[in-house]
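Contributing new records

If you add data, match the layout below exactly. Sequence lines come first and carry their own label; structure lines follow with theirs. Keep one chain per record. Anything else will be rejected by the validation script.
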Amino acid sequence: MLTKEPPLQLIGGEAVPAASGRSFAVTDPATLEHLADVPNGDASDAAAAADAAARAFPAWAAASGRARGRFLFKLSEAMRRDDERLAAIITAEAGKPLKQALGEVRSAAAFVGWYAEEAKRANGTVVASADPNRRISVIRQPAGVAAAITPWNFPLGLLARKVAAALAAGCTVVAKPASETPLIALAFAELATRAGIPPGVLNVVTGDPEPIVGAWMDDRRIRRLSFTGSTAVGQHLAREAARTLKRASLELGGSAPYVVFDDADIDLAVEGLLLSKIRNAGQVCAAPNRIYVHRSIHDEFVTRVRAMVDAVGVGNGRDPQSAMGPLISESALRNVERLVHDARAAGAGVYTGGRWIGTPQTRRGWFMQPTIVTGVADDAELVVEEAFGPVLSIMPFASFGEAIARANDTRYGLGAYVFTRDLDRAQRAAEAIESGIVGINDPLPASVEAPFGGSKASGYGREGGAEGLAEFLEEKTISLQLRGER
């Protein structure tokens, strides 16, 4: 049994069903088997969660950063002790291989541990005044209740880093996990309760996002919004947040360039695609989407990538031999198939893959063979938009200037990758590419200690590092006018 039966929402420190009594089914994308029925919350559940968070806020905000940090340390350690069970839940509802799921759990625990430390470092400043009789200081205070809305592709990692930063800052949280992967969020909430985090400080509501998030957008007590998801939804939420002037942190879509220069370590660059693109079946917002390879090594690179791709074990994440699991749903699979089909119809070549590889007898599992596409046009939807799947679009380039221009010819700006042995070229490329994070010979550049986020249509705001804590703080200037003799 993955979770307690039945899994319930966490509102005001209590495990509760939906106010309506309704529920929805969660299924395994690898087997299409029923996993659990989860409360189908609505606006009334959202309002109850906001009420609980608002009641809990004054006491949580007044606690010292060290005290809040102690709760987060306990939560981090609880996650580490329970990592195998948590990973099994992720594999069951998100489909990713168990090894990758275990890595997500440990990364999530690391984020919680990091913010346990950062909780005591919400430092202010002293400003030197031009007036000798004035003393100016700037303090940083918790912003209020924060709403965290998370996707299904990293259902624990993204929830943990939002919640940990908010709680460390002194905010209370209402959270809405993706409907595809609510079980891990509820397991996280249960561990938070066991760690002693006070009632109402963390609240998790599951169900249809429209009424839940809509209620929170209307609620003026909610002062922060942290969202990870598509650009279209992010734009909608930004408009909604503007009505009550909530500050929003939005990590949105991406179409990351992966630039391989002629002096690159080809083995390293090929292995990097296994780690950054095949991981989670390509369902990663910062995954390489446009692979630009210098024309002098293009053919060799494609040959080596094919050998790597054809050796990838695709199957149920519970199988130790599986390096790639299914896509999250049939609609996700069909969309990727459509993108490949349209690129092929426009003249691109499918070098390998490009088809569903489930079980024909039962039509079970949304598995897709890893796919290499060559000769794809720069204006093909496959590369213009985010191809959320295991499709590697490989295109040649001739010069440094061309590579940078094509890398920047996108509305997105989340992740980017550069492979070269030339330090000068690497630094110039990293500075020139319009992206929130750049990996130089590094296919996994995100880290707990550094900020992560995008530019352009990939959103704004940062998670991770000290910057992630700052998203949930308000700065207040205090000016003291001295009287009497000096």
